[in-house]
Amino acid sequence: SVIIASQLPIAKWYDYIGDPTLADAIMDRLVANASKIELKGESMRQKLKK
C-alpha cells in the first residue's frame, strides 16, 4: 500500500513533472486503481486561529 498526500491537484502533476512520458508512467501506476479522497473547503488552520 502507498499513501500520497499532495496539495497539487492531480491534473497539474503533468506540468510539474515536465516529462510527459515519465508523468504517464507515474500516473498509470499510482492513479489507475487508486482510492482518491479530496478535501474541499476552508483551511482548519484559519478557523482555529480565530
From TrEMBL:
Q: Which domain of life is it from?
A: Bacteria
Pfam families linked: IstB_IS21
Residues in domain IstB-like ATP-binding?
1-49
The protein's matches in InterPro entries, at most eight in alphabetical order, are given as: IstB_ATP-bd (IPR002611), P-loop_NTPase (IPR027417)
Q: Which GO terms describe its molecular function?
A: ATP binding
Keyword list (alphabetical) reads: ATP-binding, Nucleotide-binding
In its UniProt entry, what is this protein called?
Answer: ATP-binding protein
